[in-house]
Design brief:
By secondary structure, this protein is mainly α. Helices cover 92% and strands 0% of the residues. It has one helix and no strands. The protein has one helix at residues 3-37.
Amino acid sequence: TATPIFHAPVMNCLDPLYHEIARMYNEEEQTKKFYEDV
């Protein structure tokens, strides 16, 4: 039940990280191709 109270500040903190992770995930798609070659 504490989740909604906990959610807002955490999301504010993690939002930039989320975008960074999303960017890294897109790069990871290219990395998978690299590993397939290896």
